[in-house]
Amino acid sequence: GDSVTQMEGPVTLSEEACLTINCTYTATGYPSLFWYVQYPGEGLQLLLKATKADDKGSNKGFEATYRKETTSFHLEKGSVQVSDSAVYFCALSQGGSEKLVFGKGTKLTVNP
Amino acid sequence: DADVTQTPRNRITKTGKRIMLECSQTKGHDRMYWYRQDPGLGLRLIYYSFDVKDINKGEISDGYSVSRQAQAKFSLSLESAIPNQTALYFCATSGSTGRDIQYFGAGTRLSVL
Predict the structure, then answer these.
(1) What is the predicted pLDDT for the residue at A90?
(2) CA separation for the pair B19, B11 (Å, rounded)
(3) Burial grade of A94 (CB within 10 A; 0-12, 13-18, 19 or more)
(4) Looking at the complex, does the CB of residue B105 fall below 8 Å from at least one CB of chain A?
(5) How confident is the model at residue B1 (pLDDT cuts 50, 70, 90)?
(6) Among partner residues B43, B45, B104, which is closest to A45 by beta-carbon distance?
(7) A40 inside 8 A of chain B by CB
(8) Is the pLDDT of residue B37 over 70?
């Protein structure tokens, strides 16, 4: 079945450092790919998405590019802030389906 | 007010007790979901519903049941709680358009002693 693998955490960075959280997937066909973010004490919320190969999703300074050749969707940010501290989940869905498959999540802590 | 509201936010119960977690939404979405989150395991789908008359099992439905009382309300029940059901439970919704984008409640932290 479909699956998502993302890098183990936790990740701890200093403010203004560069961030990359790796995500790879296994799926048939051409899934849509997502990053969701969970801030402390809150539910998940969509951060960005991409629906086809070479699409770049972006939001709040975060970016991720759908790479079909490497089956990857790595999350990047050039300069993180303390307010970016959260758990980040990579996910996929097939053909616009409402059924999401989530990775295990990566906890990011950004120190001042 | 939150678009997706879960009650209670925290609950401690004992093994063997019946417990209900409730979810209501004001987004007007027809699709609703229940997930559980365990450390290191991510989110796993328990049940989902496409409308009031449509209920579907997810990946880990054993030991759980659901009720879709109205388009806006979706409840999750543990008929006889056991300690390995201790987890963080999330309700989510999505619309018939943009249905792959889900909107989550703040979660219910359940402890079964």
Answers:
(1) 96
(2) 9
(3) middle
(4) yes
(5) low
(6) B104
(7) no
(8) yes
